[in-house]
Structure formats: structure tokens, C-alpha cells
Amino acid sequence: MGPGSRLRLGGIALVVLAAGLVVVGVVSLGGGDGGDAAASVAAGASSPSDAPTGTPGAVPTTASAAPTELATTTPPAAAPAPTVAAPAPAPVDPRTRTDVVVLNNSTVTGLAARAADDVRSAGWSVADVGNLTGRNATTTVFYPDGQERAARALASDVGADQVQPGTSGLSSYGGALVLVVTNDYVG
Question: Are strands 140-143 and 177-181 parallel, antiparallel or unpaired?
Fold first, then answer.
């Protein structure tokens, strides 16, 4: 063999070696078409990483690297839930929060005690029972500022004809409603 043919044979060997390295590099970087991986899975390998790399004489190994992340898509944003207004709180029953003072302004003995029993039976709290001097024409519920609604409820419960703002003479009873019963009280 002459020097020219040795040179030519060395060049061919170099080209074949370079081509082999390119193929090994492409396959090891995952640039292959997946045919070898599919064939190894079909042949019983548990994952594509168990497949042979295609390098002659190489021993297959199991990859211990972390699994690759899969591309995820963000689901479309859900429409906001319709806003439902909270129900209005039920009005507070004045019977549970308002004290009642019952005063007898009649000639009937024990009328205030009987009216107090009627008031309690209707669900109200009786704070005091007594007598009132002076003269009221009819059974009346007197109320302090801000208690008209409660006074009207009490009047309805006991059959009182009149509902009026409290007078200065009744201010000593504080925030209580004052039921003044007269001879016309039926209960």
C-alpha cells in the first residue's frame, strides 16, 4: 500500500468516526424519532429510559434523573359566582328586649297585677307593678324616645287604646314602656 492510499483510508475512517459520534450525540440528546424507545417498551422495558442507547457495546442503565416536566395549560378562568345579597336580618322582637312597668290608674283594686299577668302572657318582661296618682282617661302605653314600635306592639297585645310619648312624670322608669291601666282595661 502506498502513502496515498493510507491517507485516503485514514480520511475515510475519520469521516466514519465523526458520523458515528454525531449519531450517538443526537440519540443521547433525545433527537431521535422515538422508534428505539417504542421498540424497547414493546420488548418489555419499563420506560423509554431503559431502552438501549444505540452505542455498540454499551450497557443499558436505568435513568435516575428526575422525570421531565410536562407542558401544562391553564384552564380558562371561571366566571365569577353571582353575588347573592344576604337576607336582611329579621327585626328584633321588642318583647325580648323591652321592660314594661304596669301602673294602675283606676278604682279597681288589683287591676295592675292582672294587667301585668296579661303582659307576661304576651311574652313581655314586667319590671315593676304599681299605682299612678293623677287621672288618665283611657288605658295608654307611654314610651321613651326610640321605642314607639315596641309601644305599639304592646298596645296591640293588651288591647290598649292609646300610644303616646312618655311624659316627664314617667321619665323615672328609664327605657321601659309604661302601661297605665284605667277602668276601661279589658285585657
Answer: antiparallel
